[in-house]
Design a protein that fits this description.
The chain is 23% helix and 36% strand. Strands 1-3-4-5-2 form a 5-stranded antiparallel sheet. The two termini are 19 Å apart.
Amino acid sequence: MTTQRPELAALSVGDVVATRTIELDRATLVRYAGASGDFNPIHWDEGFAVEVGLPGVIAHGMCTMGSVVGVVTDWVGDPGAVVRYGTRFTKPVPVPARGAAVVDVVATIGALDPEAGTARVDLTVSHEDVKVLGRAQAVVRLA
């Protein structure tokens, strides 16, 4: 099945183009640690995380960032259409021992550049109504 890319001409600044709820559980953190090689104990050892001043085990920032961009790649239909992506990590995402941390993502068109054929997608990323990523933006090339 082929997905048709959104058309630049059909978009306006302020359009909400996608939303998603992402769940991060401890198993996700284990898989991410294995894939990334980031075995920092703040991502798996509750006692250590609390000892260093965190609310408990927290998600890897890059795991959160990588999960969030999936909202954009699914919307655009082609991961190769993302020409730039960046964010600032503003708050940690605590991950409970049982269940999952819920991260809400809203993707909104922040800017259009018809000459370059690109759109900037601004991502609002929050956990329990607290913004966890700041200035999360992806620039995508569109038809």
